[in-house]
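Blinded run. Sample ID left blank on purpose so nobody reads anything into the name before looking at the predicted structure. Input follows.
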Amino acid sequence: MGNNISLLLVVIPLIAAPIVAVLPRGRLPWAVALLVTSLCALLAGMQLWAVLHGGVISYELGGWAPPWGIEYRIDAVNAFVALIVAAIAAITLPYALLSVEQEIPEEKIPLFYSALLLCLTGLLGITQTGDIFNVFVFLEISSLSSYALISLGRKRQALTAAYQYLIMGTIGATFFLIGVGLIYSQTGTLNMQDLSTILPEVLHLKTVNTGFAFIMIGIALKLALFPLHLWLPNAYTYAPSVVTVFLAATATKVAVYVMLRILFTVFPYGFALATPVEELFMVAGIASIIIASVYAIYQEDVKKLLAYSSVAQIGYMVLGIGLASATGITAALIHLFNHALMKGALFMAVGAIIYRIGACRMDQIHGLGRAMPWTFAAIVIGGLSLIGVPGTAGFISKWYLVTAALEQGAWISVVVILFGSLLAVVYMGKLIEALYFRPITDSGKEVTEAPILLLVPTWLLVFANIYFGLDTELTVGVAEKAAAILGGGNP
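Blinded prediction complete.
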């Protein structure tokens, strides 16, 4: 069963997607999607347990031995990321029932859940495969379904946002594919493990160096790393609430995983983070943290504020990678997990506000904190985790990032991490002020707390932010093991 889980995680949502698309209108498509995502979360948990206790899992598709055939190769790194993706999907689906019924036209709901399952298929497929071209295939499956999901937003700007994402995503995928082709031309293999043994002998070739550069640019576009982030704020802002929750908590995390895998599995560590590349990662991470946080402060739309915050949080992960140490990689992996929790909770809470008043601009949410106390409390705790207050998951991320920076004597990085937290205080403080310390906006109707089906998934993620801020055995333990597998950087 252990070897088959990797295939089942991809096949189950892939088969379910067309079935859901042809189901009759009503709640049956949601029920099937909920069952599928719950099963995937269970399988992902079993897979991580099997890897931690039994070592690497290898599945040869069609019985073809690698490198001739496609291999699904699972270690602690991708099992950890797969669990994040599957668990977020399982938590998001209960939340989706009421939100989707309000925001998506009834006749499109089966297609919506079908596209969501296809997106899940692509993201899980990326985490499972050990073939670099297969990564591109699953990347396109997740991207194409994401474009469709974003375009279903209620405002016309959703179409523009989806089109902008389509253009940027296509450019990123093209860069990635060109890079893969260049490397294949010099190595004759697409298997990641096989590449890791062949590439050290051909690193002197300009074709390989060019291929590496193309792949990194392609991933940076998919990752929304500054200054290649321009598609993300509008995509998150105008997409349906459920889509924003799911993509914000999973898509960029999978892109970070791909970057880690290319840097530390496919290419040897000494090549991937040689001094110029290392400095480029550091500069990009620092720029993302500061510039995106400043942009967040001046946003009047709450979803766009949190979207720019996501760009800043991506900067923290890239900064951890750029610190080029075992602790830095550990910090990046921990923040990958914790950011999924905090941003998922925050976007769910904002989605609850949209469900009640149909908007989320600052001037439209004045005083709603008193009318929606549970939603407001979720935003406060999620915001504290985003800032990095002790006792929350976000603090663990910031602690390991600061530790990694101090180990390397990177004092500028330490200052940037702390300054980024102060900027987070400003933009989250702005949101909390509007919700609680401004007089309530007279909309002509009484606003009540969000339905329980929206609050329960939101608070599940809120409690996870607190729990993983106090008990780090899973996050830190798995992240340290994953960092060791990836090579861990310099001793």
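Unblinding after everyone has recorded impressions. The two ends are 37 Å apart (CA to CA).
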